[in-house]
Amino acid sequence: MSGPSLYLDRYQLLKHLGKGGTGEVWLAHDLELKGDVALKFLSKSFSEKDTDMLRRETKNARLLSHRHILPVYDFHSQKDHPAAISMEYAPGGSLADLASREKRVFEVSELSDWIMQACEGFAYAHDESGIVHRDIKPGNLMLDATNSLKVADFGLSAPLAASLDDESEKVIGRRMTMHFASPQLIWNPYESHYLNDIFALGVTIFVLVAGSYPFDDPKNNRWKWDPDNLLSMSKRRQKRGWGEEPVPQSWDYAVAKCLAEDPADRPANMRELADLLGADDYYQRKSGKYSTVPIPAAEKESKKDRRNFARSILIILVFLVTGVLAGVLWGAFQKQSNEDFETTPTKEAQPYQIIGEE
């Protein structure tokens, strides 16, 4: 693309935002809806099969509606024009952009709210829609105009081959960027499981806090799977002299669990990960009371059923107790009434005499 120019007689291209192995992203103005959007153009290397897959996954992505998931609007494909996906424009850029601009690592105190918001988005997609991301990394965690975090490319990672902000990143099986891939995805690039997302979010947190990948080989400048020699975020920061604030032990522990080789040793879901990272503190600050990551509808219905059952039992018990008390009170009343009608002779009272008797 070269511009500024007009795309499909509808989108005025305003600014080039990024370029990668699969294409490039532009800020565009929608002349029909009178608003700015991000247009992700696909490179000419995309096959017809990949394009069809992306079209289908775009339809699925449009079903996701959550305040911390970047909305996908539409898939555009027209003869003699490159295919593109329109989505919400996030003016704050990605966390990868922010870290690169400021050339520093994040402190947990400034990162924690964004990670909690990401956990909310992931929990919704996993539990409500059964959709996994498969390409979680700092470049897909975007900041909107209110500085809230929104997860980008949800449901679109399968046909997208690489990051749009770093062409040098290697991608395995056209599914996930190598440095963020779990061992299971490395062994089977087509595996789709939410525990792989938990692993990738753990790597993402590690990179943002420690400034490097948890599994790397600095001497050979390559990725290296070596869980036995994994340094915590705290030790990595100390070793490199980065950061000012200490990393909470709870964060080191939570991220280490995310990076477990065995998926069974990782947090069971995004809500559990949020709790390990301190969800109670986050929600107390936001609302003044404790509240975990929003509970999925299935769990809400289950809890609602349990509440209704308990309410029914309580009502029955109230009726039973009321009936018993009423019976006891009625019995006492009857007894007292009988006593009131009985006549007891006194010393002054004269006995009745039958006439004719002496």
What would you say this structure looks like, in words?
- Among the domains are: 90-294, Transferase(Phosphotransferase) domain 1 (Transferase(Phosphotransferase), domain 1); 301-326.
- The protein has 358 residues and is an alpha+beta fold.
- It has helices spanning 48-61, 95-102, 108-129, 183-187, 194-210, 233-240, 249-258, 270-277, 279-287, 297-341; strands spanning 6-7, 11-20, 23-30, 35-42, 72-76, 84-88, 141-143, 149-151, 171-172, 176-177, 216-217, 222-223.
- The strands form four sheets. The chain has a six-stranded antiparallel β-sheet. A two-stranded antiparallel ribbon has the order 7-8.
- It is globular, with a radius of gyration of 33 Å.
- Helix 3 (108-129) packs antiparallel against helix 8.
- It is built from ten helices and twelve strands.
- Residues 161-175, 289-293, 298-304 and 340-358 have low confidence and may be disordered.
Write the layout of secondary structure elements.
Layout: E1 6-7, E2 11-20, E3 23-30, E4 35-42, H1 48-61, E5 72-76, E6 84-88, H2 95-102, H3 108-129, E7 141-143, E8 149-151, E9 171-172, E10 176-177, H4 183-187, H5 194-210, E11 216-217, E12 222-223, H6 233-240, H7 249-258, H8 270-277, H9 279-287, H10 297-341
Antiparallel strand pairs: 1-2, 2-3, 3-4, 4-6, 5-6, 7-8, 9-10, 11-12
Helix pairs in contact: 3-5, 3-8, 5-7
